[in-house]
Amino acid sequence: MGLRRYSHNSHPKPKARPSKRSRAGKANSQKRWEEKKTAEASTQTQDPAPPQTAPAPTPTSASAKKIARFLKVSSNNEKLAFNYLIIHRDTLVKLTQSVLCDICNLQKIVVRYEESHRFCKKILLVCENFYETNSEVYSSPRVSAMDSSRPPFEINRVLVEAFLSIGSGYAAMERFCMEVGLEIMAPKSWENHLQGLLSKSADFKKEVLDRSRQAVREAHMEEDPTIQNDDVLDICISIDGSWQMRGHASSNGLVAAVDVLTGLVLDFEIMSKYCHMCQMQSSNLGEDSPEFSDWQNNHIDTGECQKNFEGSSGSMEMTGAERLFKRSIEECNMRYVTMLSDGDAKTFQHLQSLNVYLGIQLEKEECVNHVAKRMGTGLREKVKQCKAQKITLGGRGEGALTDNKIDKLTSYYRKAIINNIPNVKAMQNAVFATLEHCSSTDQKPKHSKCPKGEDSWCFYNKAKAKKEHPKSHTEMSLRLNDTVYKQIKPVYQRLATKELMERCLSGGTQNNNECLHSVIWTKQPKGRLVSRSRLEWSVTLAVSEFNMGV
């Protein structure tokens, strides 16, 4: 570590006030921590409260509800344990200076270190007079392992897992050790611990998903008491794919199924077109050689090959969704009868053609956020089309359709849908009300579709309800001229059909899927190609954190 130089002639500069962003981040972090502690505390056995005691408030945020549901089905009361600490060697020396030796009964105890196992040391208390050992202990317990007489020490495994969980690898651990002054783990040891973790990935994945599925089942049974615990459960899920590499040439991709009611991940599928061992042997033996063909067949038969997908990267979502649907009854005892998606018709049409559930028609619901994006896209496309036809919709003219206005109209469209669920007719009426309102003039007011009454957001109808004279339409913050109105009305008609509005009745979004992807790519950053097993471990960690908070 480099030495830090301080000036003896100057006073320390006072710390600047933290930025608004920093304060907000700290507040959000504290809120998540409090929610997590509340959820953990709720699972622990407590003495019955006296009758007059007010009940504890239930978690209100989506994250707190998810964590609480997940912990209901925990096999034990898991909680974050602070088992490790970093201690300086001199501190142990000072601690033992007043300790009496069992042999000579004098204060002659010294600390010795033997058998260095990277982050674990064997600590001995030795008599300085007779060089006899009074006591000895390892600084860490060993990993519980039934298949080894000398399993690795827990601290080494924990630190490898910790660096993996933050999306880092051996180089980051090496740098950390150099900066802190710790003994550096050998690359071979890192690899051994990594393989040890990956070998447990299947068991870890099964435990996480089994408990998630049980939590989802209990939530649906609470909603519908007629459901029995062993019934095949018909549910609505949101499906979305993500890719490790940006662009359309990723070798790794994944698809996750999230229960819409609870927001818990039920299942996921990792797809990979890459196997490092296959590439190495292909280079050594020749891709078209009989030797490579024999080796590859054996490699696949033993289950060591990391490649499990052939085809374009773009088709990974469709293939992954197919695999999830086909195993939903066997592994989850559930049927995914309704699918909330982002509007990509290929995946939905492919699943419909498979007839996975033999006669049960797959229904589709739209993500409201993605539907709203179509409005913005449609309006921008209309501006481009009109420009090609020498019709100007944008610019600085009065009532022109600018990018800022498109963003606002998109927001109005989304609110019109959300605020009028589950009335399809009201949703359609509210969508057109935003267009008519913004294109109104003093000479031609168009507020028949706007809400009536004194509480209306429409200034015109609000003034009429109060028996006041409405202000001029020229004072509206968003105005559209007649040319813009006529050109964009077909876009509104296309995006306000009864069929589309019916698919938005749940008001569901794919926010949970997108949040999950964010957690995953934090643990396994994009742009860094890894094996399927390594990616599956990172995804399982992310799902565990996303569902239960740890």
Strand proportion: 5-15%
CATH class annotation of the largest domain: Alpha Beta
- Which strand order spans the largest sheet, edge to edge or round the barrel? 6-5-4-7-8
Taking Cα atoms only, what radius of gyration do you get, to the nearest Å?
A: 31 Å
| Count of strand segments | 8
Largest sheet properties: 5 strands, mixed
Quote the CATH topology of the largest domain.
Nucleotidyltransferase, domain 5
Distance between the termini: 33 Å
- Any guess at the CATH architecture of the largest domain? 2-Layer Sandwich
> Superfamily at the CATH H level of the largest domain?
Ribonuclease H-like superfamily/Ribonuclease H
Global mean pLDDT? 85
Helix-strand makeup class: alpha/beta
Low-confidence stretches: 1-14, 42-56, 75-80
Which descriptor suits the 3D outline?
Answer: elongated
Number of helices: 20
Query: Order of SSEs, N→C?
Result: HHHEEEHHHHEEEHHHHEHEHHHHHHHH
Outline the secondary-structure elements.
Elements: H1 20-43, H2 62-72, H3 89-96, E1 109-117, E2 120-127, E3 133-138, H4 154-165, H5 170-180, H6 187-199, H7 201-223, E4 233-243, E5 252-259, E6 265-272, H8 276-285, H9 290-301, H10 316-326, H11 328-332, E7 334-341, H12 345-354, E8 363-366, H13 368-388, H14 403-418, H15 424-438, H16 459-465, H17 482-494, H18 498-502, H19 511-523, H20 532-548
Parallel strand pairs: 4-7, 7-8
Antiparallel strand pairs: 1-2, 2-3, 4-5, 5-6
Region (Disordered): 1-61
Organism: Frankliniella fusca
Biased composition (Pro residues): 48-58
